[in-house]
Amino acid sequence: MSVAFRRESDEEHLEPKFERPIAPGPNLVTARGLALIDAEVARLEAALEQASDEDRPALLREQRYWHTRQTTAEVVAAPAAGEIGIGSRVTFTMGGEQRVVEIVGGDEADPTEGRIGYQAPLARALMDAEVGETVAFAGRPDAIEVLSVADIG
Question: How far, in Å, CA of 22 to CA of 17, rounded?
């Protein structure tokens, strides 16, 4: 039989579904970040109980990702007073503008809400700084001035 008359399944035309990538290195999180991961795992488990056969593969994929993140999470202790680290809220000036960011784990990061992952270049630049210090960033030796730091607790 000619292949021209063979019926192809709809599955042959779909893009392959790959697992969600997991960032290399340790999965450092704040206590809030671990609570958010736990909540997402619980939400997915509840959704899977009522999922249709069509929705089930995507939900299982998400569940595998979040379960891996849950089991590999390492809660980081809050930094000492005045130190900048994971779990810090930092107020600084950059480019003449005052900004506030919270340094958090990768899954908790949401730049639109002012939460940046500790792996981000800005977070890495801030993490060794102290209040009153100027920090090099984006090729400028005095790009950032640290104004204050607090625990996001």
Answer: 15
Q: What is the DSSP letter of 88?
A: E
Task: Give the separation between CA 153 and CA 151, rounded to whole angstroms.
Answer: 5
Coil, strand or helix: which one is 119?
coil
Burial class (CB in 10 A: 0-12, 13-18, 19+), 15: exposed
The overall pTM is greater than 0.85: no
pLDDT digit string, tens, across residues 51-89: 998 899 999 999 999 999 999 999 999 888 889 999 999
The amino acid present at 40, given as its one-letter code, is E
Residue type, 13: H
From the centroid of its chain, how far is CA 70?
Answer: 13
pLDDT digits (tens, 9 = 90+) for 12-29: 666 667 888 888 889 999
Q: Which residue shows structure tokens 């019926």?
A: 7
Tokens for 38? Answer: 């736990």
Query: Which structure tokens are listed for 16?
Result: 């392959």
- The Cα–Cα gap between 62 and 41 comes to 9
Query: Which phi and psi angles does 97 have, rounded to 5°?
Result: -110, 140
Do the bridges between strand 97-104 and strand 88-94 make them parallel or antiparallel, or are there none, so unpaired? antiparallel
